[in-house]
Amino acid sequence: MVEVSQSVEQLTNAEGEEQAELFDEMLEEAEPGTVALLLESLPLDERYERWSQVDSDERIAVLDLMRADPRNGILDEMPEAELDLLFSQISPEDLIEWSDTLSDAMTERALSQMGERQRQHYDRYDQYSENEIGRYAEHQFLALNLTSTVSQAQRFFRRIKLDCNDHVFLLDDDDKYIGSVRRHDVFRAAPEATLESLLWEDSRSILADASLIEAAEAIEHSNELEIAVVDTSGIMIGRMTLRTATALVREHYEAQLMATAGMDEDDDLFAPITVGARRRAVWLGINLLTAFLASATIGLFENVLEKVVALAVLMPIVASMGGIAGSQSLTLMIRGMAMGQISSGNVMSLLKNELGIGILNGVLWATVIGLIAGYWFNDPIMGTVIGAAILINMAVAAIAGVMVPMILQKMNQDAALSGSVILTTVTDVVGFFCFLGLASILYLY
Amino acid sequence: MVEVSQSVEQLTNAEGEEQAELFDEMLEEAEPGTVALLLESLPLDERYERWSQVDSDERIAVLDLMRADPRNGILDEMPEAELDLLFSQISPEDLIEWSDTLSDAMTERALSQMGERQRQHYDRYDQYSENEIGRYAEHQFLALNLTSTVSQAQRFFRRIKLDCNDHVFLLDDDDKYIGSVRRHDVFRAAPEATLESLLWEDSRSILADASLIEAAEAIEHSNELEIAVVDTSGIMIGRMTLRTATALVREHYEAQLMATAGMDEDDDLFAPITVGARRRAVWLGINLLTAFLASATIGLFENVLEKVVALAVLMPIVASMGGIAGSQSLTLMIRGMAMGQISSGNVMSLLKNELGIGILNGVLWATVIGLIAGYWFNDPIMGTVIGAAILINMAVAAIAGVMVPMILQKMNQDAALSGSVILTTVTDVVGFFCFLGLASILYLY
After folding, report:
1. Crossing angle of the two packed helices A415-444 and A242-259, in degrees rounded to 10
2. How confident is the model at residue B230 (pLDDT cuts 50, 70, 90)?
3. Which parts of the chain span the membrane according to its record (chains A, B) (predicted)?
4. What is the domain class of A2-128 according to CATH?
5. Among 3.40.50.150, 1.10.357.20, 1.10.357.140, 1.20.1530.20, what is the CATH number of B273-444?
6. Helices A415-444 and A380-410, axial angle in degrees (round to 10)
7. Does the distance separating the beta carbons of A306 and B306 come in below 8 Å?
């Protein structure tokens, strides 16, 4: 990290020839993941120039570790001959991952460079959707027959070096998964023993249609480094490793953080302006609809606003306090849901708890704000109106903070993506309605 | 995950005796991490009752995998005798982690149950702060002398089973780290060879005062499962594993997500109401200050608001569009910063890019909103005023979205925590000021 940010600092501050030389030096030392990060931190024109310096043997590894948008940008800029050379080296696993965001034409081009067997591999994994672990299972693993001996397994382990490899998987003649034997046991056993005698009883597998985050958690919570991925007929199609799980967890959270601003984890730091603007416009449009809803609510009370202009001055405070309180409940709910901790059995207790917190803080801040507003405008009615509105809005915010994500979950919607827009719409509308409605009653009648 | 959420569903829906029996069954099968999740999803009274069913041998492992607040709540509820029994079994590593949030009295109590040697261990790791990897390094690892033979290393690997163990670390007579030898090489080499001959050249270590997330990334980006943690004098004090890295990454992002609502990753789903209310009050208070700033801005323009009440109806739209646009830039910046991709060399290019996107979307939405507002109030001046204010505010939002996190970083502040409050203060104040200021000029003069 420190090293990466130092390299970014040096590279982005250099220009032209100097940058080219510096990047050549960095390429000597840096791992593909670092090269990917460095390229992503360059503006597009510099990025494409530096890309031409990356050795053709390294290119797939570097692109593989980039986010999708910068990767696709580079592929679009590459001359056809270089592209064909690149695709002639790509593995079905990598192509599957890239194809999630690649244009159909580009995917076709890549497939046309692939041998028949690899293409079959590709088709096999392509039947799983983008959220199923079967699509991304690693296809290289150690597997042996139940009747194989310990010495065969030892030879395997000695000859082949795979990352996160601490099992040999046992398959029957139809490639069906039977169980696994641990490396540690293999090297302690007598060479002539059969692997069957070492079969590890607690060995678990994961279904190919399990979601990515489920699969990541399965391996994270186990004490193993790898776990078999099997299809519905029990055939082992690949393995899931702890390293893949770490990457998936990171991507999952990055996606969630970006989603709070209506953005995507694939987004490029330096998207072309028109592309960036178009993508973000959708979220701004959705927000505009909800802002008009708030405006329409205010519009119902033009009468009282005309008479008491101080209401216009204070009304953002009511909406804002409700929004913050609601987002606190919502954030707690979203975290709990991500861990599978929220259910029909505890939602009422949660609601009671959050409502209690909302009312306590509501009373506190209603008093504080009511007193300040009363003094500011020298008008005790104003203090009463804003205090009451704050209290009501903060209680409603707590209820909405619990119920909105529950309802979204029932509708199979991602609460992390749309929860906060819906929540602030509720707290804006309720806040303005209570504040201006109460004011109408007290000032106009 | 699926299994956990099903168990949560069943357990939270059961009551009293039935819940107790169900939990007993679950305890038979479930791993400590699952038990921790289950307990966290129960309201406090039920949680403390079920805790008494957890076997005393399992208790430390379960508490260790809980978030800090629920763990501390359980410790506070335990009878003194049980507490002493628990602490007599705790390892220095676990206690170090717990002590970050434990009361001093409780930490002292735990230390008093510890033997002299373990206490020394504790003191050794306690010199590192909560954000330094030295504090949490794992103290169990395989280490041998440079002159040891391959057969000694093989014996070690066969006898001892550690998670994520794929190296034997080589130390000199003063425990200084020299390098490491890979398990894979150990089992391929001749038994009488020295480990020195297998010394792996690229082997790296990490400094004990490196930050947690730096250490996590170092191991994530390597191809290894473990890496040595050394102090400033080069002595190896422990190791960092890929599994620890995964947990750290998860905690890091969870903390970031909770921070966006001014909350803490240690927070309990069922905090006692008074505790929960007190914690959240701070964030609400900070928000109130910024809301009053916005109000004061509006207060400058009471004259024009009195004359043209439609301004009060429309003004939330200006602030809201600026806030959303700014948070999009901010989110992109925060992600880039987390990956070390933002530096003095590319911040100007980023600013240009974001400003371009802000102006493009500004022109689009200024037109849309200007037209709608003009028709709604049948007043072309109103359309012009809101359009201009939207355009200015969205351009300012883009600049603030890039500059606020840069400035916070310079001041060593966490942009994920305070960035969005500062940003929305800017967009609120600028939005209201431009909108009402322009309106004053056009309507009053």
Report:
1. 30
2. very high
3. 281-301, 313-334, 355-377, 383-408, 420-444
4. mainly alpha
5. 1.10.357.20
6. 150
7. yes
